[in-house]
Amino acid sequence: MSASRLLFTYFLLSTALLPACDDEPADPPSERVRERARERARSLATVRELATAKADRGVAERLAAGRWLRVDAAVPPDTDQSRHVLLAGELTEVPATYEALKQDHGERVEQEIMLGGEDATRPVVFRDVVEGTHTACVAVSGPASAEDRALLERAAALFEADGPQPLNAEKLQAALAAAQAETGHKPKRTDWDPRPLRCRRVDVDARPESRIAAFEPA
User: Fold this and answer.
1) What are the boundaries of the region Disordered (predicted)?
2) Domain boundary assignment for the chain
């Protein structure tokens, strides 16, 4: 697991975009807990594969079969974090900021996903998307600082010290905490409220190709 992959996983876990990995007793771990961790790892791998594969007919059919929606938001290549929002229906006017979106259209939000590191710039995959009109929006951060990159490199090394292991929120957080203690650096949480938004309408229908959408480059 690279530092960027650790960041991606940590964001998914810490923002509750996937069910928590540590909601079962961890000592001793039962076979059911280990199987859940393996299932999450497989699910993450599938989503990442669908997000990064060439947008051809085969990928479209797989997305349609799983009721997924893939959106390429044309995120700038130096972005460290991207925040993706899927809303029901069409917006007549794009909100100026993420804060305005939540204030004016919060009740229409269907899903929200945050990606980080190398995954920040890839297409996002929304799950269980029904046919109909939706709006996909994205807000992005700037590049990661040198201090943040060094922290994540150290956290990844600590996490990988015992060899490959399944997703575990407690171990990820422990690795980050240990790296923070060593480096003396604690990354600041991104303030998303003032971040500008880009949005586009997405129409999902029975055609598999409607499950793939893309923004115009910023």
Assistant:
1) 178-197
2) 3-214
